[in-house]
UniProtKB/TrEMBL annotation:
Protein's UniProt name: Guanylate kinase
Role of this protein: Essential for recycling GMP and indirectly, cGMP.
EC number(s) reported in the record: 2.7.4.8
Domain Guanylate kinase-like: 1-180
NCBIfam families assigned to the protein according to its UniProt record, in alphabetical order: guanyl_kin
Alphabetized GO MF terms: ATP binding; GMP kinase activity
Similarity field: Belongs to the guanylate kinase family.
Amino acids binding ATP: G4, P5, T6, A7, V8, G9, K10, G11
Coiled coil: none
CDD domains the UniProt entry points to: GMPK
Compartment list: Cytoplasm
Length: 186
């Protein structure tokens, strides 16, 4: 499972690792938010209406769930995770800190063996630079995200492995090494 603060490059590191190791299966989350332009159901997310999401949640079909920004529900479907783990398929979940904590609780209940990986920035100043460089948030949104990032960075000791994202390729290789070691791969 992969977690880290906003703008640390989780998705970029994941994509670089997958380009070299497409055998890794990445869990697709479910959400109640509307698809954004170009998003495909079952590829980017499983898009569910609120009633279907809540029904699946009540049946225990999610490994973890969250309400994000007080609006949309998100969850990690449990069945595909179990299926891929049972088949010994290298499996990756990219989840925020709150979701990671819920996965830890639930994984113990379900007897799932999970390695928790934290992607960290080289420094807080570098994280600020990367966030500003994205150009996707207003200064106020950036300030909010950086406050959240401070909380997320403080949680690093909760994880089994920390990978510092100095460069995407180095971090991607380090992530693959964690996965390969877990699955006994080269």
């Amino acid at each position: 499972m992969l977690t880290g603060p906003t703008a640390v490059g989780k998705g970029t590191v994941e994509a670089a690792m997958l380009a070299k190791h497409p055998e890794v299966w990445v869990s697709v989350s479910a959400t109640t938010r509307a698809p954004r332009p170009g998003e495909v159901d079952g590829v980017n997310y499983w898009f569910l209406d609120d009633d279907e999401f809540l029904a699946r949640q009540a049946r225990g079909e999610f490994l973890e769930t969250a309400v994000v920004h007080g609006m949309a529900r998100y969850g990690t479907p449990l069945a595909p995770v179990r299926e891929h783990l049972a088949a010994n398929t290298p499996t990756l979940l990219e989840i925020d800190l709150h979701g990671a904590r819920r996965v830890k609780e639930r994984a113990k209940e379900l007897g799932l063996d999970v390695v928790y990986v934290f992607i960290a920035p080289p420094s807080f100043d570098e994280l600020k630079r990367r966030l500003a460089g994205r150009g996707t948030e207003t200064p106020a949104q950036q300030a909010r995200r950086l406050e959240t990032a401070k909380v997320e960075l403080a949680a690093e000791p909760e994880f089994d492995v920390t990978i510092v994202n100095n460069t995407v390729d180095e971090a991607a290789d380090a992530l693959w090494k964690v996965i390969a070691d877990e699955y006994g791969l080269d």
